[in-house]
Amino acid sequence: MSQAIQIIDVNTMIGMYPTHRFDMTVERLTRDMDAYKIAAAVAVSTIGIFHDHTLGNAATAEAAKGNNRIVPAATVNPTRFFGGIEDLTALRQQGFRIARIFPVEQGWRTDSPLFDQLLTGLSAAKMPVMVDIRNPGDAADIARRAASYPAPVILGGVALENLGEVVAAVSCTPNLMIETHALWAPGVLNVLCVRVGADRVIFGSGAPRSSAAAALQYVFSSTISDDDKQKILGANIKSILEAA
To answer: 203 vs 25, 90, 189, 199, 229, CA distance in Å?
Structure first.
């Protein structure tokens, strides 16, 4: 590379994973960050994903309090949220600059009115959102909602199986972006840089549950330009977080 890249990982988790025994402690995450020269990581507590989002957000905030390289991501499970817009806008006052949403893990659909209500509340805070996707139609559902959302919306879990739908959705939705952790096929980053532009692609690893080394190698070994690698690996998400 012609110059050092500031790597920022938009997709990390801390805590216990219910179906597997992984070392997902903050200490393990920071060791990975040190080993692979990751400057900052957006992290969310698994407590908030799988159990209670209020307790999970508190755990995430506590982890970030002692480590300025951890960027805390809030999460809300709309099937268990009974508050109002003021509760969602309060997340910003609590230090959260991005929200992560997990319909797949929590068993609800992206065309649910629950999702509409959640986005309405988060839009009042103009908070960037990352939504994990897996099912056919998820990207299209989110694109329709993102069109009126006042901040970037990042699609997590983009893989070869849903890539065509994702590219079509991102191409016609200016604030919709793509996260990379589930990509592995050679040449996909080249396609994305041509079809939607490198400024719409954001690096994520899924660490420490998944390999940060493998996720980074996928980007570094691609034949896209150094400038595009710099955007994907850190510059894009840095701009989003600084504006949030």
So the answer is: 21, 28, 11, 11, 9
Instruction: Tell me the CA distances in angstroms from 48 to 24, 102, 218, one per residue in order.
Output: 14, 10, 29
Q: State the pLDDT at residue 168.
A: 98
What's the rounded Cα separation, in Å, for the pair 207 and 41? 9
**DSSP string for 201-219:** EE----BTTS-HHHHHHHH
Q: What is the pLDDT of residue 19?
A: 76
CB atoms within 10 A of CB 230: 19
> Could you tell me the pLDDT band of residue 3, with boundaries at 50, 70 and 90?
low
Given this model, what pLDDT does residue 2 score?
43
Q: Is residue 2 part of a domain?
A: no
Q: Are 102 and 76 in contact (CB under 8 A)?
A: no
DSSP state of 83: -
Instruction: Average the pLDDT over 106-131 and give the result.
Output: 94
- Where do the DSSP E strands lie in the chain? 7-14, 38-45, 70-75, 98-101, 129-132, 153-156, 176-179, 201-202
Range of the structural domain that residue 127 is part of:
7-243
Residue 23 domain flag: yes
Task: Say how far residue 88 (Cα) sits from the centre of its chain.
Answer: 18
Domain count, the chain: 1
- What's the CATH code of the domain at 170? 3.20.20.140
